[in-house]
Amino acid sequence: MNKVILMGRLTRDPEVRYSAGENALAIARYTLAVDRRFRRDGEASADFISCVSFGRTAEFAEKYFRQGLKIAVTGRIQTGSYTNREGQKVYTTEVVVEEQEFAESKSSSDSYAASHPQTSAASAPSMPSPSAASADGFMNIPDGIDEELPFN
User: Fold this and answer.
1) Does residue 6 contact residue 31 with C-beta atoms inside 8 Å?
2) Which of 42, 58, 98, 134 has its Cβ near the most Cβ atoms within 10 Å?
3) Distance of CA 43 to CAs 70, 110, 123, Å?
4) H or E element: which one contains 107?
5) Do residues 92 and 80 touch, judged by C-beta distance below 8 A?
6) Per-position DSSP letters for 42-94, written without gaps between them
7) Could you list the residue range(s) of the whole structural domain that residue 102 is in?
8) Residue 70 and residue 128: Cα distance in Å, rounded?
């Protein structure tokens, strides 16, 4: 089975092109910075994974996805190779996206973008601080309210 599930932030806006011909097909390419679960020496680290989507999925990415946005994708890994202009064989690995969705609220995305004006592919993006409770899209629950909840 070839199934991939990723959650990460876009390192740049998707690059969208359309195929030639009568029935032009949208093709979107973007890179996700996916944080590694385990960190070495307390350093943040991420993997930068190339993704490609086609058709309506690509058109959605073109319209709604921007650098720094956190998304979740499912798809399959595809490998390939080609010979470059210098005659060297180049091997490729990318995720062919089957489904994609937002992984955070718009307000969280906006607060992340404001605190990270220049996200580069060379450095792994960090998560917004948990102290920004109002920015994460959830309402703060006041102290003492738990006595009023029916499922306590």
Assistant:
1) no
2) 58
3) 20, 25, 11
4) helix 106-115
5) yes
6) T---EEEEEEEEEHHHHHHHHHH--TT-EEEEEEEEEEEEEE-TTS-EEEEEE
7) 4-148
8) 11
Q: Tell me if 5 sits within 8 A of 74, measured CB to CB.
A: yes
The total number of structural domains in the chain stands at: 1
- Residues present in the chain in total: 152
Q: Position of tokens 């993704």?
A: 51
CATH number for the domain that contains residue 104: 2.40.50.140
Please give the Cα distance from 29 to 149 (Å, whole number): 47
Q: What is the pTM of this model?
A: 0.69
Sign of CA dihedral 102, 123, 42, 40: positive
Which pLDDT tens digit goes with each residue over 72-97?
A: 999 999 999 999 999 999 999 999 99
pLDDT in tens, 108-142: 767 776 776 654 444 434 434 344 444 555 556 66
